[in-house]
Specification:
The chain is of the alpha/beta class. Helices cover 44% and strands 16% of the residues. A six-stranded mixed beta sheet has the order 1-2-6-3-4-5, with helices on both faces.
Length: 164
Amino acid sequence: YFVARLFSKKRSKTIDQNILTRVLEKETWPGRLQVISRTPGIFIDVSHNLHGINATLSFLSKFIKKEKLHIMIGLVRDKDYKGIAKTICTYAASITVCEPDTERKLDGKIFTREIKKIQKNVQFSKDSRQAYDSIRVKLKHDESLLVIGSHYLAGTLLKIINLT
């Protein structure tokens, strides 16, 4: 809304607030806490730094208890993986580490070792599709899966589940 107001002021045009609100309500941003399934809950979020991941998990924790949340995560090398490991362990019952499909990927084994210092229920999978399918079929109806950490990982999974 703020951007639209600036645009209209600069161009000396008036933008109807009701029309703008209706348009924005219909807008979707794939990978931004995108709901794939409600029962069980499956979400994909492209948060990829400590601040964004913490914000997403803090929000979800209002609705999903730690013992019901499973996280699938893949990061690129330039991220604060130690800080992210501490954060995700605070919110997740289990964690599956994958490597995003990019040359910039963080070595999943290194990230997994870091998480294991804090939480034992962690595994590493080289194959994100296999990991996703494995977690999904094990989810109980009252549990949730959050795929997070990278645009690359989110994009790969959205293609796999035919949502792009």
